[in-house]
Amino acid sequence: MVGVEYLVIDKSGREHELDLTDIDACPPVAQDELLRQFILSEEVGRIPHEAPAHIKLMQRLELVDYEPASDVGHMRFYPKGALMKDLIEDWVLNVALSLGAMVIETPTMYRADEPDIRAQAERFIEKDYKLDVDGKKLFLRFAGDFGLFRMMKNARMNVRQLPVRVFEIAPSYRLETRRECVGLRRMRKFTMPDLHCFCKDLEQAKEEFRLLTLKYAELLRGLGLDFVHAYRAERAFYEENRDFFVKVAVELGKPTMVQLLPERKHYWALKNEFQYVDSVGKNFQLSTVQIDVEDSERYGITYTDVDGSERGCVIVHSSPGSIERLMCAVLEEAAKAIKADRLAMVPTWLSPTQVRLIPIADRHLEYAIKVAEELVGAGIRADVDDRKHTMDWKVRAAAMEWVPYVGVVGDREVREGRVMVTIRAKSEPNRPYKVSMTVQELRDTVLKELEGKPRRPSYLPMRLSMRPGFRS
């Protein structure tokens, strides 16, 4: 793009020029491989053609699969995948609620002849699913803005209430090309959480931008993800607010790429992106925060100031990223571990099974079930492998599922009330870390990992012999 310039703000707040023809001449880029890979993929256009690893993983783990009876980019989620997806939704919702956001629900389809909706939708031409219903032209939502803005147009807000934060998580639809639809990375049907904050002026919006940026970094780190941070803004806006850009980047603790545009061509004056780089070096956006300076006027969203006058809001759009794409990144992070000859895993709070109990013989089954039931009663997802296979086969099967805690019970464990536990996070390939624990010690260890994270019961029967196989 003509007139576009690039900078990198390092972790200490210093600016460095970035020349895309020689990115390694920029010290923060040369010293941060993740940032380097992002710039090569996103800005330079060096796009890898290798298939992303998460597709085979989501299928092998019986999480997600393609649905041939539906449109491309519409997936089926098996019980373990549905559980992981719901847990990520819970995690995102918890972040919104921690900020005092109000939760709403709006329709999935909208009339294309509404002037304000049409004006916004025209930015996404060819990306919408069109419908003809009762002689009316409708389209499926591809973002959460339409219903929210129409709702807030009729809301009565005063300056003392601002910022007003409104959250929605809902299915969304974008008619991406067939070639663009890749596993969980890009889909036609996805689940999009949106948090919109209605602010009294630019200064309040900037503080809201900062708060959300730090919160979304915390959210991604809670998923076990590393990321690249980038700003995009008009050069004049950057120059006027340089100290603010630097402050947020330093607080984030990440080197930050800055793309400077010669003029504003979007509804936002400033946006940031939390970009993820997958196991093959392809980047994709997760979270974003944007200062919107257009939609308040387009939809007529106002607040009452102290003098009784009506004023337009500055809106801070934000999203932690689609739930499916966050799940994709979690699986790609595991794929990176495999490439580095480490054990793949997901955070314990996201693991469909957190503790697997394996009885050595049939006579140990009753004790294994008793231990599992005690753990389940404490809010831990525990199951029992009671299938007709050898103990070694069951241990390998648990490892293939990345179960974080695998407990084997035999005569000694039954007699002493203990469990011989393999802890995946402390193990190495071909060198499992094993420790004998009491049931209380096992329970306390797992619960400590779950502190501050969402919890849900398993979506599958406790006994593995009672579970159907979803893939041949």
Short description:
The chain is α+β, with helices and mostly antiparallel strands and 472 residues long. It has 2 domains: 333 residues, Bira Bifunctional Protein, Domain 2 (BirA Bifunctional Protein, domain 2); 119 residues, 3-Layer(aba) Sandwich (Rossmann fold).
Describe this structure as you would to a colleague:
- The protein is an alpha+beta fold.
- The protein folds into two domains: 5-337, BirA Bifunctional Protein, domain 2 (2-Layer Sandwich), CATH 3.30.930; 348-466, Rossmann fold, CATH 3.40.50.
- The chain is built from 15 helices and 22 strands.
- It has helices at residues 27-30, 33-44, 54-60, 79-98, 115-121, 145-153, 202-222, 235-240, 242-252, 295-299, 323-339, 365-377, 391-400, 411-416, 439-450, and strands at residues 5-9, 15-17, 64-66, 75-77, 102-103, 109-111, 130-133, 136-140, 164-173, 189-199, 228-234, 256-261, 268-277, 283-292, 302-304, 310-312, 314-319, 355-359, 382-384, 405-409, 418-423, 434-438.
- The chain has a ten-stranded mixed beta sheet with strand order 2-1-12-11-13-14-17-10-9-5. The chain has a five-stranded mixed beta sheet with strand order 19-18-20-21-22, sandwiched between helices. The protein has a three-stranded antiparallel beta sheet with strand order 6-8-7, with no helix packed on it.
- Strand 15 (302-304) and strand 16 form a beta hairpin.
- The longest helix has 21 residues, at 202-222.
- The mean pLDDT is 94.
